[in-house]
Design a protein that fits this description.
By secondary structure, the protein is α/β, with parallel strands linked by helices. It folds into 2 domains: 143 residues, Rossmann fold (3-Layer(aba) Sandwich), CATH 3.40.50.2300; 45 residues. It is 48% helix and 15% strand. Helix 3 packs parallel to helix 4 and helix 6 runs parallel beside helix 7. It is elongated, with a radius of gyration of 19 Å.
Length: 194
């Protein structure tokens, strides 16, 4: 959650008085949206919530003189639930920033809600290049490598060593399809890709 501290410092130094007008209810509310009970829970989940609270404590509990509150919710690894939680947070609960996600489809859904509501979305472990590419908005950031870095580097290395036969075993969700597409784009002309 170093990104959280960096964001708070940036907010405090870059926006000064203008940011005070943007803060809801004189309280900076950060929503940690993760898989708190399912397959990704050990990857981010409850640990992300603890880390966010520790980062806030390390930062002194305030930004721009306003107290910081951390709320958390379980997206259950479902994009529609993640988007609904983000919408509730931004519309009714006065959450200023959503962070976490740890799942590409949820990050893509939440970043669009954040854009519509003019709030901030920061993905912790989202690798699809759609998040930082085609679907990128000015309201979001990614805090990790993406599939371009993972696949392109490996594919070019293997091809550079003479590898010319490929088989893809691709997980059937956004991350897997993005990883395969990036690997193919590293060495196959667009006309030959299928």
């Amino acid at each position: 959650m170093l990104v959280l501290a960096v964001l708070l410092i940036s907010l405090a130094s870059a926006y000064g008085a203008a940011a005070n007008a943007q803060i809801s209810d004189n309280l900076v509310r950060i929503g940690v949206l993760g898989d708190l009970s399912g397959v990704y829970a050990d990857f981010g989940g409850p640990g992300d919530v603890v880390a966010a609270r520790m980062a806030v404590e390390d930062f002194g509990g305030k930004v721009l003189g306003k107290p910081i509150d951390v709320v958390a919710a379980d997206h259950q690894s479902k994009a529609d639930i993640g988007a609904a939680i983000a919408r509730q947070w931004f519309d009714a609960d006065k959450v200023d920033m959503a962070i976490g996600f740890d799942n590409s489809s949820i990050a893509l859904a939440v970043e669009q809600v954040a854009f519509q509501k003019n709030r901030i979305a920061i993905a912790g472990a989202v690798a699809t290049t759609l998040f930082t590419g085609k679907s990128c908005t000015p309201n979001e950031a990614a805090w990790l490598h993406d599939n371009y870095a993972l696949a392109n580097t490996l594919a070019r290395s293997v091809v550079g060593r003479g590898g010319d036969t490929w088989f893809f075993i691709t997980v059937d969700y956004t991350f897997g399809h993005s990883l395969e597409a990036e690997a193919k784009s590293a060495f196959w002309p667009a006309a030959e890709r299928s």
